[in-house]
Amino acid sequence: MRKIIFKFVILLSFTCMVISCASTGSSSKVKIEYDKKIEYDSENPLVNIDVYPKYTTGFLKGYEGFSVNLKNNTSKVVKIDWDNSSISYGYNNSSYPFFMVGQKYADAGKSVPATIISGNSSELKSVFSSGQVRYVSGRYGGWTMDKISFNSVKMTIHITSGDIEQYAIINITARQVANE
To answer: Which residues of 118-132 are buried (b: 16+ CB within 10 A; e: fewer)?
Structure first.
C-alpha cells in the first residue's frame, strides 16, 4: 500500500511540475526580436535582400524557416544560384545547402534550381536548411522538419547577372525580450 501511495505522490508531483512549466497564461510572455546584418561584396548590389525569419518559442524553440525577399536593382535578368549558396549555424558553424518549398524531402542537400528574377522586379522565396530535414523510422515515422535551435544563423547567397558575380552575407540573431 505504501508503494502505491508513494508512486501516486511522485506521479502527482511530476504532473504538477509539467503543467506549471507548460503554462502559457503567465504574465511574463516573451517576444522575439531579430538583429539582421546584411553585407554585400559590392557598393552596387545587383539585388537587395531582406529576410523574415519564422521563429517559435517554448520548449522546442527555434527557426522554422525563412522568407527571403529578393529585389532586382537592375534592368537586366539576375540569377540566384542556390547551389553555390549556403546557410550556416551550430557550435562549429556547420554549412548546409538550402532546401526550398516544393523540393522533395528525400532530395534535401541535392541540387536546387536557380531563381531567375527579371529586371526591376522582386521574388519572395521560402527557404530552409537541408539540415532541418530528417527521416524518422518506425511505426509512426516519416519525413519531418526540425527547427534550427541556435540563435544565430548565417546565409551566404550567390548572385549573378551576365559576367557580374556577387555574394550577399546575412547574419540573423534572435533574442528574447520580455513584453511589458
So the answer is: eeeeebeeebbbbbb
Cell of 29: 510572455
User: What span, in angstroms and rounded, lies between the C-alpha atoms of 115 and 36?
Assistant: 23
Helix, strand, or coil (residue 119): coil
- How far is 87 from 85, CA to CA, in rounded Å? 7
Task: Name the residue type at position 107.
Answer: D
The pLDDT tens digits for 56-108 are: 887 778 999 999 999 999 999 999 999 999 999 998 899 999 999 999 999 99
Backbone angles phi, psi at 123, to 5 degrees: -140, 135
pLDDT confidence of residue 27: 41
- Other residues' Cβ atoms within 10 Å of the Cβ of residue 46: 24
- What's the whole-number average pLDDT of the chain? 87
Q: At which residue does the C-alpha cell 519531418 appear?
A: 144
Contacts (Cβ under 8 Å, ≥6 apart) of 140:
none
> Nine-digit cell at 83?
547551389
The pLDDT value given to residue 148: 95
